[in-house]
Amino acid sequence: MSSAKIVSKQELLIEAGRTEQQYWKDIWRYRELFYFLAWRDILVRYKQTAIGIAWALIRPFLTMVVFTIVFGQLAKLPSQGAPYPILVFSAMLPWQFFANSLSECSNSLIGNANLISKVYFPRLIVPTSAVVVSFVDFLISGMILLALMAWYNFVPSWRILTLPLFIAIAFAASMGAGLWFASLNVKYRDFRYIVPFIVQFGLYISPVGFSSSIIPQKWQLLYSLNPIVGVIDGFRWAILGGESKLYLPGFFLSLTLVFLLLFSGIWYFRKTERTFADVI
Length: 280
Prior knowledge:
- It contains twelve helices and no strands.
- By secondary structure, it is mainly α.
- The chain starts with 17 loop residues before the first helix and ends with a helix.
- The relative contact order is 0.14.
């Protein structure tokens, strides 16, 4: 009786669109890469600097001092019942987070070109890790705000409990804008020059050094087309309390634009992601 050989066969099923279906699961599967990229950038950011991570405190602090002198002391603009340095710094926190995220995200794919061109992983991990690194700077800079509150004996109201909500909105705005510029910078390297200009110009057209309440009523809704206006106003409403008020039509307009920016950024990033390895 001849021996029979049993061969085990496996079927290879090629299913259209399976990569798309698995994409969000892959982000979770590659979470260790996300941690590695974020931690690497945190360590490298201030490496070989004399004062290290203190730069995360010095830059916003000096900007706050300049704005306080120019707008608070010279221009005598209203401070919504709070010390002017606290008014300014409550806006500096979300602005610095947004500006840093925009700068870091726009260059994140270019900076990881070797990794992207050789290894498969969900590319969304790269700009997201850049935003997380900027968020670490945001948390460190928050110590200045706490110091200012202690210096001026300023006690926030119950509204401070809503601050995590506005932090989430700031995160959405940073992520949405960052994804757009990260995608565009891969194909059009002009954006490495455009982004710094946008950051510098945006600082002056956003209510960082002054309260948005000084904008005439008839222009406030138009002014809120700048999505970061709603984020800053939300931070001030939560931190300052008292006389600080939210212009609700403008805030909801900014909020709508933030989430439109986020979802369109994800859509455009996913649409162009498959070409990154070839173009970069």
